[in-house]
Design a protein that fits this description.
Elements lengths: L1 H8 L4 H37 L2 H19 L1
Helix pairs in contact: 1-2, 2-3
């Protein structure tokens, strides 16, 4: 992000800045996918394995809330 801010301060060509923004977004998307996969493999899996309906509903609600925010 600092690089994008610096590009703006240097009044770089708009398309170059947009390319950099796209690269940042793609990198964040990859990290997000990995964190979500890790969450499903650990936290969600633990809630399912526990057999505790409250814990299971809580983890499910967290995901619903997260994806609800993404849609907005």
């Amino acid at each position: 992000m600092r690089g994008v801010a610096q590009m703006l301060e240097q009044d770089r060509y708009c398309i170059d800045i947009l390319h950099q923004i796209q690269a940042v977004k793609a990198a964040l998307a990859k990290v997000e996918d990995q964190v979500l996969a890790d969450h499903a493999a650990s936290c969600v899996n633990e809630a399912i394995a526990s057999g505790d309906p409250l814990a299971q509903r809580k983890k499910f609600a967290e995901l619903v809330d997260l994806f609800g925010k993404v849609k907005r």
